[in-house]
Amino acid sequence: MSEFDYDLITIGAGSGGVRSSRMAARTGARVAVVEESRAGGTCVMRGCVPKKLLVFGSHFAHDFGDARGFGWHVDEPSFDWGELIANKNAELDRLEGIYQRILRENKVDLIEGRGVVTGPHSVEVNGKTYTAERILIATGSWPHLPDVPGIEHAITSNEALDLQELPDRIVIVGGGYIAVEFAGLFNALGVDVSIIIRAGNILRGFDEDIRDTLADEMEKAGITIHRECQVRSIEKQGDIYSLRLHGTETIECDTVFYATGRTANTKGIGLEEVGVKLSERGGVIVDEYFQTSVPSVFALGDVIERIQLTPVAINEGMAFVASQFEGRPTPMDYTNVPAAVFSQPPVGTVGLMEAEARQNGDVDIYMSRFRPMKHTLSGRNAHAMMKLVVDSESQRVVGCHMVGDDAPEIVQGFAVALKCGATKQQFDATVGIHPTSAEEFVTMREKVPETDEEC
After folding, report:
1. Per the CATH hierarchy, to which homologous superfamily does domain 151-260 belong?
2. Is the pTM of this model over 0.85?
3. Of these residues, 121, 144, 401, 434, which one is catalytic?
């Protein structure tokens, strides 16, 4: 008989925590998951899923606008934000039930409350102590708010998903993927949107042509981007918020939304007290098998600050279970992880940015910019960009990037090709599907001249 209550206690019932727990339980391990909020975690309850549902809702504004070019004549459409939020919340309730059922079906105990690590093998929840041979930290991340006078007036992505009313004017501080996604959906729904960024362009960390193309498309749609700008203070004046920028320059709005990054959710759960080493930003430091400085404590997902994506956390969970419960030491492979930004238009990307690839040697660049076929009749002034980054010596395609309708769906397929090490010649030998935007990836033949790249 084991000296512990469980073989594994997981703190956090998000995608990574649930996958790790149920797969460990399938090996015969006794497993419990501790969750203080809702089963499903950030992605399902406060991130990817509700945000994508709102993005879907906002797209209808474009569809109604485009319909006339295709012969459709409809009465002036109306929109009910409250109805969309209510329907979104009903779907989240359904998904939470599914997550809870998954845990029950796999005989994983769900312990509701805040889990605090009190020792190498112990977790306290609501005043009760539970013991386990291994403890897994999968507590995710949380929106970061900087120290700015008046910051208490700002909302984050958590609150933006449940606004009671749609504002007339919103200022979004930050230029990352969360900022541009919400900017696009609010703009499509008729909100006056301004973005404030400290850098010279949006989407730091993405390929430069993605950044430039998306910024151009957003500005054409009516979104104002204040570059190289910083908020000095926020004041509430009646029902209006005033943001002071440089000197006496101010901007007013109905809602202030900060999307200035996320930090690891490690405060107040006892990690440092039991000897778990954290990074300067508060992330849990782990080895390639997700083991912390305390041998019995492990961590994965957003909390370890590697690649903060739901599918990555799920795959990390699978690698953790293989290593700890199946006797197959399995590190996570982080190469060629595809990613999407559900901006308007959306972004799909996999592999190396051009700048990264050039650090490794000579590269060939292939690029196509075009107006999608749909918009030749819709009349919308929208353009797409597709780009391939190719290693000059091996001719292997090392980067694939797209901005335009269906970019995430298209790039997901090409991610398989990059994972398999496909060459430009193999892309060229692939017959395209016509007429599609995706065929551009297999029909680009002319390299971008070096002189153009340097301009």
Report:
1. FAD/NAD(P)-binding domain (3.50.50.60)
2. yes
3. 434
